[in-house]
Structures are given as C-alpha cells and as structure tokens.
Design a protein that fits this description.
The chain is mostly helical and 488 residues long. The protein has 23 helices and 6 strands. The longest helix has 31 residues.
C-alpha cells in the first residue's frame, strides 16, 4: 500500500492526526471525517488457519485448476466457501469426496429432516467445544426452519433428540463402552423412539462431526470474518498498515518463519526413511508368531495410555457450547484407568469392509459407498514424497498412523505387527495424535509444530485427514457392532 503524501502545511492543519502507531490512507481519512458511524470489523487472524501461513493455502487454488473448480462448485451449492474446505484444498481428491459425502448427509433425501441433521451436528461438535462448527450449524439450522428455542439448550429440544445425548457422549469419548442396550433404549422409547434408518443417519452424523472437530482443532481452523470469534472492532496498533489493509487481510504481521527451529531436527526425514527401509527388510526376513503379534498389540495399547494430552488439564466448556450437550464433565478416559478393562475389538470379528459397510448401505442407501470411498481416499492418498524426497513408498507410515489410532480405541488387526509403531512414530507425534483424536480442544500450535518439523504443511494436513477418518471409522465400528448385536 502507498501512503498518501501531502504538503507539509496541509498536514499541520489537518484535523485528523496520524500518529506513529497508526497510519491512515487518504481514502479512509476522507471517510473518517464524514463520521459515518459504521464500525468496520477486521479479521482476528491471518487466513483460514492459525497454524498454516495464509499464502500457502491460497496458493493451492491459484495453481491447481481442479481445486479451483471444486471450490466453485462448493460455493455454488452452499453459498459459502468455509475455511475447512480451503485447508483441505491441499488435497483436492479427498476434498471432492468429503464435500460430496457431507452434502449428501446434510441436504439430500434421507431418514432425518433437515433441521434434525443440523441440530445433531451442533450436538456432536459441542461435545468437543468446537464453537466453529457449532456456529456454522446454528446458522444452517435456522435457515432450514429450525425452532430457535432449541438453541437455548438441549433441554429445550424434543425428547427424541435429548435421548440421543447419551449416545453422543459415549461415542465421542469412550466408544468402547457402547452396548446393544444403548441402542435398545433409543429404538424402544415409545412415542419418542427412533427407527433403525434414522438411527444410522444420526450415528453417521455424530461420528462425522466428532471427527471433523478433531480436524478443525488439529489444523487450527479460524472462524470466517463474519462469524463469532472471527472479527474484532478494535483498531490495530501497527505502524506500517492502514486499517483498510488489515481488514482486507493485506497485513503480513504475525507471519512466522517456518524454518525456525529446524536446525535442531536436521536429518529427521532421512532417519524415518531409514527405519522404514529396515522394517521392510525385517518383514522379508522373518515373521512374528500370532502370540508375539498379540503381545505387541497389548504392549502398544498399554503404552498409548501413558501418552498424556497437552498439559492434561481439566477443560471447562463455556455455557454457550455446553448447553447443547449433557454431562460436561464426561470426557476421554483410558481403558485401564481405575482398574477398568475393555476387551480388545478384533477387526477379524467385525470389520467395516465385511459388516459395517453393508449395514449402513442397507439402512441408508448410497451412504455406505460414499463413506467407504472417503476412508479409502484418506488411507491410500499418496504423492510418493516425504518432505523434499521423491519416489518414496509411504504405505508403511500411513498404515502405522491409522492402526495406532485404532489401537488407542482398543481395535486390533491380527495381521499387523504393532512393534512397527514405536519405530515410526516418535513421542511428540504420538502426543499430537492422541490429543487431536481424543481431546482435540486441547490441541495447540506448539504441538502442531513439534512433530515432523521438516515436512510440508500439506503433509501435516494429510496426517490430519488420516486421523480424522481413522477416528470416524473407529467410532462407527463400535456403534454399528452394537446395532448389529441388537438386531440379532
């Protein structure tokens, strides 16, 4: 921006002083003299994410025609392009699948009415105090004709939705505790009962927004300028930019040097690649027995309980958020805390591919297929790169991340050697994963920056996609198994 230059005598007579703290361009100066009485908001942050530089996110759509096309379609369908979509734009193949699935769940024909769908989204996002998603769906809920009284709190909503509160709570924080009795109470609630098709729709929505809350916090998604928490009316105290520059996002303030601290992690990528190579050689040389594989799973599951989330402090949700769900003190607890024991969930006994997929597709046609494509897209997505290295097979690393998340939920794959996880995922990465999946509201920028410090932001977003989809599938497995047990 060019600052207006005026003759010295004019400056002295000017009734609007330009201080050393704040410069005003000529256009804004003229407006200020008119005293229009209009407060102009400015964004609180720089771009869609607190963690990722704005220029990197916006550059994606400029150079990738497919991403630009997806953005245009999303805007045409919703009348907006939210910050979640902008960040997911690093991976257009996934974004396309995600938006297609979400559009179907919220807007296409289905068992639940439109306002019920958005209210369930509010309930699910509120469990993790995700005000970004809550506010988004509060607006959508009202736009489709939802009763504003319901927004005063869950106790103002219909009894049928209130009864979903227990399922929402258990699925979000301790899905391994879900039983067929939870399902029975919902399906046999007399005049407030759910049909099986409605319940499947509700379960998919709950798991979708629990996991999307993880992605929102994990990538530091910022509210849009028109949303609560996305703007301020306070003038900036900067010396180089006019108010209009700040409001339009042209300031470069608060941009961080991504190379900061990378001196300490030189060779991080090469070490990880070497471990992958060694593990592949060990696979080829010898195969562990089933007993040893089971022992390694139990060891990894136990070790995952020792990984503490950020500061591990108690989190008190605001009244604005907590009114949308019951029992705010209920949160994630490790399997064995206070002597509790939860049997291992063996994928060989109940899997998404062989059981969950068909159940969803039967009761909510086409959704099982869409979810399956989205899971596969996240799991198999690769550019065969690691930081600056090309032609790298990353399948071993992607599988370790996916299986570690399922391990934290007690889910075991008999054919996987869980000893690989400790070789590929260091402690800082495990802390990030556990926090983002189990207590996403505690995720911090320091945690995001502390793992994979030589990797690109697009690779960290890819990690978040893996974490989000693995979490959603884990919750779905427990919920669908409980429904299957009720049906049989």
């Amino acid at each position: 921006m060019r600052h207006a230059v005026a003759p010295a005598e004019n400056v002295e007579n000017n009734s609007f002083a330009v201080t050393d703290l704040l410069k005003i361009c000529a256009h804004c100066e003229r407006l200020s003299k008119k005293d229009l009485g209009v407060r102009i908001p400015r964004p609180l942050g720089n771009g869609p994410s607190r963690f990722i530089p704005e220029k990197e996110i916006l550059q994606v759509s400029k150079v990738d025609a497919r991403t630009q096309s997806i953005f245009e379609d999303a805007f045409a369908a919703l009348g907006r392009l939210d910050n979640i979509s902008l960040v997911m734009g690093f991976h257009p193949q996934y974004l396309e699948s995600f938006l297609r699935t979400q559009h179907y769940l919220l807007q296409m024909d289905g068992p639940l009415s439109l306002h019920y769908r958005h209210y369930i989204g509010i309930m699910a996002a509120a469990r993790h105090q995700c005000s970004y998603l809550v506010n988004l769906h509060v607006n959508d809920f009202l736009q489709v004709g939802g009763d504003p009284k319901w927004l005063n709190g869950l106790d103002e909503a219909p009894q049928k939705l209130q009864q979903l509160g227990e399922l929402n709570k258990v699925l979000a924080h301790r899905p391994w505790l879900l039983t067929k009795e939870h399902i029975e109470r919902l399906l046999k609630a007399e005049e407030h009962s759910w049909s099986l098709a409605e319940l499947i729709h509700a379960v998919v929505l709950l798991t979708h927004y629990h996991s999307l809350a993880s992605f929102t916090f994990g990538c530091g998604i910022m509210p849009e300028i028109h949303c609560d928490g996305g703007h301020t009316f306070r003038p900036p105290s900067l010396s180089q930019y006019c108010v209009c520059d700040i409001a339009n996002g042209n300031s470069h303030a608060n941009h961080h040097d991504d190379s900061l601290g990378n001196q300490d992690v030189c060779g991080e990528v090469e070490v990880l690649m070497e471990r992958m190579k060694q593990l592949q050689e060990c696979r080829d040389d010898e195969e562990a027995s089933q007993e040893e594989m089971a022992t390694r799973f139990e060891r990894e599951k136990t070790e995952s309980m020792l990984v503490v989330t950020a500061e591990d402090e108690e989190w008190v949700p605001s009244r604005d958020i907590s009114r949308h769900f019951e029992d705010p003190s209920y949160g994630y607890k490790d399997f064995s805390r206070r002597g509790e024991h939860v049997p291992t969930f063996r994928v060989q006994d109940y899997s998404w591919e062989d059981h969950g997929f068909s159940l969803v597709n039967r009761l909510y046609p086409d959704v099982g297929q869409m979810l399956d494509e989205k899971f596969q897209m996240a799991y198999n997505l690769t550019y065969n790169t690691m930081a600056t290295h090309k032609d790298v097979d990353t399948s071993m690393l992607r599988r370790a991340i996916w299986n570690y998340i399922h391990c934290m939920f007690g889910i075991r794959y008999d054919d996987y050697d869980y000893g690989e996880i400790n070789q590929l995922l260091d402690r800082s990465f495990k802390i990030y994963i556990k926090t983002m999946v189990c207590s996403p509201e505690k995720t911090t920028k320091r945690m995001y920056e502390s793992f994979w410090r030589q990797f690109q932001h697009s690779e960290k977003v890819h990690v978040n996609l893996l974490l989000m989809e693995a979490r959603m599938q884990a919750e779905l497995l427990y919920a669908l198994r409980a429904i299957t047990r009720y049906m049989t």
